[in-house]
TrEMBL record:
Gene Ontology CC terms, in alphabetical order: plasma membrane
Residue stretches spanning the membrane: 12-34, 46-68, 80-101, 122-148, 154-172, 184-201, 213-231
Gene Ontology MF term list: flavin adenine dinucleotide binding
Principal subcellular localisation of the protein: membrane
The name this protein goes by in its record: TerC family protein
Key words, A-Z: CBS domain, Cell membrane, Membrane, Repeat, Transmembrane, Transmembrane helix
Localization per record: Cell membrane
Length: 525
């Protein structure tokens, strides 16, 4: 044991341990990937048995050093190639590694491994262990030959192999968990194994690839993957700061957009096929247009402003108590609304809310309109209220509406349950009004007061809503122009042209929207 007192012995032992660990990394990667195929309760056991058998195999090979040396003697020698037992082992081991790794890569690239744990078909325990042992036999040859070439003492070699295996056992579970949690790392490791398998085959056929080249490629790939993991970690960290609702909404919206694009592609492919094929492709679509519109409306509701949902002040029908009884009666009969705000002289002086039918009865009975209307007081909300909180307020209104007011107490509009439904499902025009949006051949005829969210969904674009300072098409065009545009002007917002059909000194009444430049002249003629 005097050689343990020699510092060079300890230096050689340390160097050999490091090399054994480095040479065993590929084996450890393969163990991590194979153990994933087992049920969770068997993975640790498979790792321990596999690496334990690997240790026994390496120690047995070390004890047969004289036999290992003979493995390099050619057994097949001709004019084309010369193969030894070691070469044959490396050749078949490399081919097996290439085959196995290719199958693993194919499985992951095809996403076949993303199955639920309840339905997943796990591999047999001993089948996995045998694969680990077979691959370790191939990997052990390089490790043992390296040990023989570096150190002369058999005991030092065995100690180095034992220490390296213990280190691999300690790191195996952590490495396995890390690899299985990061699918990009799995693909990277499989790529390493492909490269190692190819190097084993070339080495068996006497086409030597310098190890330094392989290690440099592996090191560079690992560095890039580290950058990738850091970028992914920072992305997830930033995403976690955003509200869960917003992230979920964006994910669903992306799904609908993707499904719509796939649907358009299917239609293009089936243009020259039979009607039956078109019908079958239509049956396979995930969302109908109406469903897509409503889901989009629900998910974007929280991001909208109260002003984009309410009926604006200019469209409110209200009862003026300063008018005569006959005038009030005629207004109630001529207007299809069932609920009215009752005001004294002007809209900002609200007394209460009445039902048209009940007020007509009160007028017949000569009851004072002001006293009768004050029984149901209005619910007033600020124009800064969150639309999600608006739903609870409307429930408390019990079928009535709420009044929207700004910070100065000026009435901005009112909101009924129907307004919220229209924000989600689209417009439901009354019998006495025309729709806000009318589709024509190559254009849309749109009212200036049309809600931007509804218009944006209809045009399938995200270019219209950039700020929250405006809620209608008219507000957008005024902001884009910097002043109130005149009749006949054309405003361009990619990829649409907005032709002002009718405008007054105070607002934009009617706009024609054209998507393509070529259609403008045709539509203006």
């Amino acid at each position: 044991m005097e050689f343990f007192l020699d510092p060079s012995t300890w230096a050689g032992l340390l160097t050999l341990v490091v090399l054994e660990v480095v040479l065993g990394i590929d084996n450890l990667i393969f163990v991590a990937i194979l153990s994933e195929k087992l049920p969770p309760n068997q993975r640790d056991k498979a790792r321990l048995i596999g690496l334990g058998l690997a240790l026994i195999m390496r120690l047995a090979l070390l004890s047969l050093i004289s036999w290992i040396v003979t493995l390099t003697s050619p057994i097949i020698n001709n004019n084309f190639f010369s193969l030894s037992i070691r070469d044959v082992i490396l050749l078949f081991g490399g081919l097996f590694l290439l085959f196995k790794t290719t199958m693993e890569l194919h499985e992951r690239l095809e996403s076949n491994h993303h199955e639920s744990s309840e339905n997943k078909n796990y591999a047999g325990f001993w089948a996995v262990v045998i694969q680990i042992v077979v691959l370790d036999a191939v990997f052990s040859l390089d490790a043992i030959i390296t040990a023989v070439g570096m150190v002369n003492q058999l005991l030092i070699m065995m100690i180095a192999v034992i220490l390296a295996t213990i280190l691999m056992l300690l790191a195996s579970k952590t490495l396995t968990n890390f690899i299985n949690l990061h699918q990009t790392v799995v693909v990277l490791c499989l790529s390493f194994l492909l490269m190692i398998g190819f190097s084993l085959v070339t080495e068996a056929l006497k086409f030597y690839i310098p190890k330094g080249y392989l290690y440099a490629a592996i090191g560079f790939s690992i560095l890039i993957e580290i950058f990738n993991q850091i970028a992914r970690h920072n992305f997830m960290k930033n995403q976690s700061r955003r509200p869960m609702r917003q992230r979920a909404a964006e994910a669903i919206l992306r799904l609908m957009i993707k499904e719509k694009h796939e649907k358009e592609k299917i239609k293009q492919k089936t243009n020259n096929t039979t009607t039956k094929s078109v019908q079958s492709s239509s049956e396979m679509e995930t969302f109908k247009d109406e469903e897509r519109y409503m889901i989009n409306g629900v998910l974007t509701l929280a991001g909208r402003s109260i002003r984009s949902i309410m009926t604006p002040r200019s469209n409110i029908s209200w009862v003026n108590t300063e008018k005569s009884t006959d005038e009030i009666r005629m207004q109630l009969l001529d207007t299809p609304h069932s609920l009215f705000p009752v005001c004294k002289g002007e809209l900002d002086e609200i007394i209460g809310i009445v039902r048209a039918k009940e007020l007509l009865v009160a007028l017949e009975e000569k009851i004072d309109v002001s006293n009768f209307s004050s029984k149901i007081l209005p619910i007033i909300i600020p124009d800064t209220l969150d639309p999600i909180n608006l739903l609870g307020v409307l429930r408390r209104a019990q079928g009535s509406f709420v009044i929207v007011s700004n910070e100065f107490g000026v009435v901005q509009g009112l909101i009924t349950p129907l307004d919220v439904l229209e924000a989600i499902a689209g417009e439901f025009p009354d019998a006495d009004e025309t729709p806000d949006i009318i589709k024509e051949n190559n254009s849309w005829l749109v009212k200036g007061e049309t809600d931007l969210h509804s218009l944006q969904q209809l045009l399938n674009t995200e270019e219209l809503i950039k700020e929250n300072n405006y809620a209608s098409l008219g507000g957008l065009l005024i902001a884009q122009k910097g002043q109130l545009p005149m009749t006949g002007e054309i405003i361009y917002i990619h990829p649409f042209h907005f032709h002002i059909i009718k405008a007054t000194e105070y607002k934009i009444d009617l706009v024609r929207i054209i998507k393509h430049q070529d259609d403008i002249q045709a539509s203006l003629k």
